[in-house]
Amino acid sequence: MALFFCLKLDGRSDGAVDSREKLLEFCFDYCYWSVDAADARYASQEEVFQDLGVSVLSGASEGYNVCLFAYGQTGSGKTYTMMGTPDSIGLTPRICQVRWRIPQDTLSFYPCSFLEIYNERVRDLLSREQKKRVSLRVREHPEKGPYVEDLSQHVVTDCKQAMDLLEEGITNRITAATHNHDASSRSHAIFSIQYSQAILENNLPSEIVSKINLVDLAGSERADPNYCRDRLTEGSNINKSLVTLGIVISALAQNSQMSSSCQSINSVTSEGDGSTLGSHSSSLSGGGGGRRHCFVPYRDSVLTWLLKDSLGGNSKTIMIATVSPATSSYNETLSTLRYAAHAKNIVNKPRVNEDANVRLIRELREEIDRLKSMLLSFEMRNLSPSLSDDRDGNLSDIVLQNELKVTADDTCPRNASSCPHSIFIKCLSLFVK
Ligand SMILES: Nc1ncnc2c1ncn2[C@@H]1O[C@H](COP(=O)(O)OP(=O)(O)OP(=O)(O)O)[C@@H](O)[C@H]1O
């Protein structure tokens, strides 16, 4: 997980410096400072977009799922960074603008959705239904993962349509005044773009589908007993889901560290004396009584459940931590930085989401190439009198396996002669023969 750190200074000097002051260091990929636009250090929205937004777009074009989320104390600049203001638009509208401005040599379409999680309930921010406040159910697909049932999808074909949807959703989002912020977002908002590309790869029609999740989290804040009941309930639900997010991030970071230490031990094992280290590594991998991977409680909150893949699965994920370095915000700033430092340790395993049939065809083609070169070298050797019976036997085995694949393919429910697998598997066996 890549990590970026945004400072929104309030331009105030808080004076008193504690003599017991200690230095705490955190290491992040980028650090931005935005207090005074006239200052040379000022990080503009465009600069943040060039560093982060462009990598979101390039990841999605390559076929990866990408998630970008902003986390931080209330009033520290999450919504400003993710959405922006009319005069200074943020990452989400910039991503939408560029996405539709790029001339495409491929046929592309983009269904978008926009939801908010308010008091642990999911609401469609773009619903065309009368009952807009109705809460939607989260369900889990065995392969595609968690999703929101009946969430409206809006196919957009140009930048204006995407910006209109974004504006509509932002207007429908729930905000309220808190001590730190007059228009504080009281819900977590997720804007998703399903990015499908129909491409021609090696003369084969193919489809790559990736999902971009742009998440603006509600701000964390300490409970104030003077707030009305609604505000207190909102605050406790926001804090509950952010605490769960913290637990999920810690568990994932711990698991990632454990996996990497297992890998390094395994590599030492394969290089060195396997007998002693080998037994150590197997206990770490969780087989017996050694350290086990932590349970990750994704389903303890709707937010972590919906972001399951983005946090610890098939996604390139970027976290933006927004902080105010005012002395009065010391505890929140420190907690945000610690949260972010944990997140940086998570290692996801993103993969290109290509069509399963196309992947199979590509793999079979690679197999054909491999067998062709084997056959060629076999024929070259055949010119010499010492022919190896073993190799002959191996090739016969492969031919037999391919025949079996062809037989299995004949049981394919589709018409066998029109099924691309059958064509390629048969070609494969022909080449070998
Ligand atoms: N870098 C910045 N430059 C100029 N103004 C900023 C910057 N960051 C935030 N602001 C302004 O500060 C105020 C609070 O910011 P914002 O709404 O983004 O906070 P937030 O973290 O989303 O708060 P909440 O969690 O309560 O919704 C807004 O008026 C916003 O325009």
The number of helical segments is 12
Taken in chain order, the helices and strands follow as EEHEHEEHEEEEEHEEEEHHHHEHHHH
Structural class label: alpha/beta
By DSSP, the count of extended strands is: 15
Strand content: 15-25%
Tell me about this structure.
With 433 residues, this protein is an alpha/beta fold. The chain is built from twelve helices and 15 strands. It has a domain at 45-225 and 232-261 and 296-360: 3-Layer(aba) Sandwich (Kinesin), CATH 3.40.850. The strands form four sheets. Strands 1, 2, 3, 6, 7, 10, 13, 14 and 15 form a nine-stranded mixed β-sheet that branches. α3 (91-101) packs antiparallel against α4 (159-172) and α5 runs parallel beside α9. Bound molecules: adenosine-5'-triphosphate. Adenosine-5'-triphosphate is lined by residues 8, 34, 72, 74-80, 85, 181, 184-185, 218-219, 322. It holds the Pfam family Kinesin. Belongs to the TRAFAC class myosin-kinesin ATPase superfamily. Kinesin family. Residues 263-290 are annotated as: Disordered. One of its GO terms (cellular component) is microtubule.
